[in-house]
Amino acid sequence: MPESRSLTSRRGLLFGTAAVSAGAFLTACTSNEPADSGEKTGADTRPAADDKPGKAVTIGYAGPQADHGWLNAVNENAKSRAEKYEDVTLEVTEGSNDTAAQIGQIETLINKKVDVLVILPADGKALTQVGLKAMRAGIPVVNLDRIFNSPQAYRCYIGGDNYGMGLNAGHYIGEKLKDKENAKVVELAGLDNLELTKQRTAGFDAALKNYPNIKKVARQAADFTVESGQAKMAQLLQAQSGFDALWNHDDDQGVGALRAIEQAGRDDFLMVGGAGALSAMQAIEADDGVLKATVLYPPTMAASAIDLARALGQGKGIGGLAEFEIPSSLTLYSAVVDKDNVDQYMPTGFK
After folding, report:
1. Per the similarity annotation, which family is this (predicted)?
2. Within a 10 A sphere around the Cβ of 127, how many other Cβ atoms?
3. Which end of the chain is less congested by CB atoms within 10 angstroms, N or C?
């Protein structure tokens, strides 16, 4: 999963209920008459902001290499959203996780004089200078998810809430185990060298402090792949003969984790995933295994980034706000999806 930042002020927690996200709020981004949307699983399914054609806008999109389910969903959300607007032309670069290659691709878009740039950087710190270059060239930048080092490198930031993911996962588990004496939980984290992993763990630990009967007895870091999830989960299961709940940071590695759990014949705990993969939501709906919930990290943020870029290009604000300008920062809410609301979120599940 991509790096992001956390904000210290956030909305009240939702324990497995739906939240109004920044993405939903952006359906009014350029005011009137939302368009009907299709039922395309894994891509943005919300109505487009203002279907009425306005000033023509060329948006340059520099996203990641789609080597992970969530990253692929991000790219698809951006493309499908742009297709809903007659007045938007999307210039898409070949996705890259190589910083030098991505910098070159963005410089090409700058030289083409696109109206607005949407950039999900392979490395926010490494690409800060090219963001600054675009802004100085008069091209507003929508910085998607992995944040640049300087606010001068973007006009608007939109991303997920990693701390909030951990916080809401911890509270969901806490509420399920609050009446169990000496409850034990384990954590299957992502890559420990990523700031986002540290934020998710910090949020989880903060939530558990509200439940003195619960103790985290083990933590294992994986690397967001099915193979790593299976291997690291097998190690956790071997080391821990008994526990009550597992929080897994990422649904892609969760596929492997579930394989290891099935191979070990374990069903004595509940599992909470992260991100919102279609496979996770289907397992939650079936309710015949350990996976009971997943905490969203919505790939629809890319669709909302296109909304923001279009609004910037047309000089519009967001409907419902008094201000004439779009905000400088939007952090999406990490809603918990369980069997009670999975039907609502199923269309957003990514493969």
Report:
1. Belongs to the bacterial solute-binding protein 2 family.
2. 23
3. C
- For residue 33, what is the domain's CATH number? 3.40.50.2300
The conformation of residue 180, written as its DSSP 8-state character, comes to S
Counting the structural domains of the chain, the total is 2
Residue 10 is assigned to a structural domain of this protein: no
Measured CA distances, 62 to 97, 103, 122, 156, 227 (Å):
11, 9, 10, 15, 28
Q: What pLDDT shows up at residue 344?
A: 96
The pairing of strands 291-296 and 336-338 is antiparallel
User: Is the C-alpha dihedral spanning 188, 240, 203, 278 positive or negative?
Assistant: positive
Do 305 and 252 fall within a single domain?
no
Region 103-123: mean pLDDT is: 96
Asked if residue 171 and residue 289 are part of one domain, the reply reads yes
Give the global pTM: 0.82
How far is residue 202 from each of residues 173, 215, 328, measured CA to CA in Å?
Answer: 15, 15, 25
Question: Contact 272/293 with Cβ under 8 angstroms?
Answer: yes
What is the distance between the alpha carbons of residues 291 and 142, in angstroms, rounded to a whole number? 35
Residues 259 and 214 placed together within one structural domain of the fold: yes
pLDDT in tens, 331-341: 999 999 999 99
Q: Is residue 283 part of a domain?
A: yes
For residue 76, being part of any structural domain is answered with: yes
Domain that holds residue 182: 162-296
Residue 50 lies in a domain: yes
* Alpha helices (H) in the chain, listed in sequence order: 22-25, 69-83, 99-111, 128-136, 162-177, 195-208, 226-239, 251-264, 278-286, 301-314, 342-345
Distances (CA, A) of 84 to 48, 135, 286, 313, 329: 7, 26, 33, 16, 24
Residue 31 and residue 152 in one domain: yes
Instruction: Please give the C-alpha separations between residue 134 and each of 112, 142, 145, 310, in angstroms, as whole numbers.
Output: 11, 11, 18, 17
Instruction: Sheet with 57-62: list strands edge to edge.
Output: 88-92, 57-62, 116-119, 141-144, 156-159, 329-331
Does residue 62 sit in the same domain as residue 148? Answer: yes
